[in-house]
Amino acid sequence: MAENIVIVGAGQAAVSCAARLRALSPECSISLIGDEPYLPYQRPPLSKAFLTGELSVERLALKPHDWYDAQAIDLKLESSVSSIDRRERQVILQGGKRIPYDKLVLATGSRPRVLPDKFTRDASRIYTLRGIADAEMLKGELRPDRRLLVIGGGYVGLEFAASAAKTGLDVVLVEAAERILGRVAASETADFFRELHRSHGVKIIEGVGVLSICDIDGARRASLSNGEQVDADFVVVGIGAIANDRLAMECGLETRNGVLVNENGQTSDPRIFAAGDCATLGGEALTARIESVQNAIEQGDAVAHSLLGQAAPPRKTPWFWSDQFDAKLQIAGINSGFDRTEVKAGARAGAQSIWYYAGETLLAVDAINDPVTYMTVRRILDARTSTLE
Amino acid sequence: MPRVTWKCSDGKTISADIETGVSLMEAAVNLNVPGIFGDCGGALSCATCHVVLDEAWQHIVPGPTDMEGEMLEVVEGGRTDRSRLSCQIRVTEQLDGIVLHVGV
């Protein structure tokens, strides 16, 4: 009998899963439940081309409206799931409506970490960036000559700072850790981006925390741990993301900083799967939760296979990218556990790459304006993964 | 609107009139052209929108940038001298009638 598959979430992982499911099984029933009012969309442009007005909201959509009809995928937008009843195998929407499932996929994504309330309760115009609604508000703030304070020197913070500086804003970025990109990249990569931002007028302050933000004289005044104060018209906080695993936790699924899944994307309930930002892959040696487009697409695709009892295609090397000013950073592999790096100049002027090793084993590369190195390393790492399998 | 045709390796042909300004990748994704994914949304980072220009169009379409050229050097399936990443080609009136081969 054709199975009834319900996917909670309507982002990249959800759409990838639905598309693959339909390709593999013309007969199963597929529903996507998303809480936003927009067609499932791409998030990466929200800090870049969408923010600066180069890309319209229509062009963010992953698929046009008629695609969902053509694929017989029931897209329920503006619908919030309040709980999961595993015994009855039903998803319960806010308002009480129950939707039965044979198998369930959690693709609930992640949400931005926020500053503690006591830091910000006396301040207005403090934003995080996750969805179209956030980006629309921030677009309204992005006016030349306004002063922006960015808190957090990760990729979202740096990309936002770059977009704002390009638009003509006066930008200060504060990073509490010793340096920007501390959790995700080597110091050589951080050095490049620090210099890039400085050359475009962004003031980067590292190793300094924000103690409080208050509205004073029409500005947001941030008091920093080094005793300085920064006045800004608005503040963007980019200090990481948290998996949306509440639904899983409340219905008793195992979680570990995300919905815990095995290699097949299966949670501790064999009828429930998870994919994308919300999923933590548990292993004997490591647990990993990856926030990226490529991971969302791949895990969504893999879960579609698992749902039908099929083996998923071999995993590819994870890849990431970040565009800031005129620089393109492309990352192949995951650098965690590296013990040394090598910096190599690329073939063209301005191209360079940072290679991460654990002993003699290549783990990852950060390629800056150096696509050929990025693509080459992807191929090397892909070949190694397939040999191991 | 310019007419664009994708010829897929399985013999399937998809033709449609495409609004100017959108990329050939976006148009293909919207039309569900098999073999065109555009995972990175046009950021020149996934190489999942590889097409081969039909011979007649090779010299009409503006050539690739250095960055695109480098991505193509190591593209899956192998580069041909008419290979392009279709996210980097915007539809213009000049491209009316263009034919693209996918998955060759």
Report on the architecture of this protein.
The complex is a heterodimer of chains A (389) and B (104). Chain A has helices at 12-24, 65-70, 117-120, 132-141, 155-167, 187-199, 246-250, 293-307, 371-388; strands at 4-8, 29-33, 73-76, 81-85, 90-93, 98-100, 103-106, 110-112, 126-127, 147-151, 170-175, 203-206, 210-216, 219-224, 229-232, 234-237, 241-243, 259-261, 272-274, 279-282, 287-288, 319-324, 327-333, 340-345, 352-358, 361-368. Chain A has 389 residues and is α/β, with parallel strands linked by helices. Chain A has 3 domains: 4-111 and 242-307, 3-Layer(bba) Sandwich (FAD/NAD(P)-binding domain); 114-239, FAD/NAD(P)-binding domain; 319-388, FAD/NAD-linked reductase, C-terminal dimerisation domain (Enolase-like, domain 1). In chain A, the strands form 7 sheets. Chain A has a 5-stranded parallel beta sheet with strand order 3-2-1-7-19. The longest helix of chain A is centred in the last third of the chain and has 18 residues, at 371-388. Chain A is globular. The mean pLDDT of chain A is 96. Chain B is an alpha+beta fold. Chain B has 2 helices and 5 strands. A 5-stranded mixed beta sheet of chain B has the order 2-1-5-3-4. The radius of gyration of chain B is 12 Å and the shape is globular. The termini of chain B are far apart. The model of chain B has no long low-confidence stretch (mean pLDDT 95). The interface between A and B is medium-sized, with 28 and 21 residues. Chain A: InterPro entries: FAD-oxidoreductase/Apoptosis, FAD/NAD-bd_sf, FAD/NAD-binding_dom, FAD/NAD-linked_Rdtase_dimer_sf, Reductase_C. Chain A: This is NAD(P)/FAD-dependent oxidoreductase.
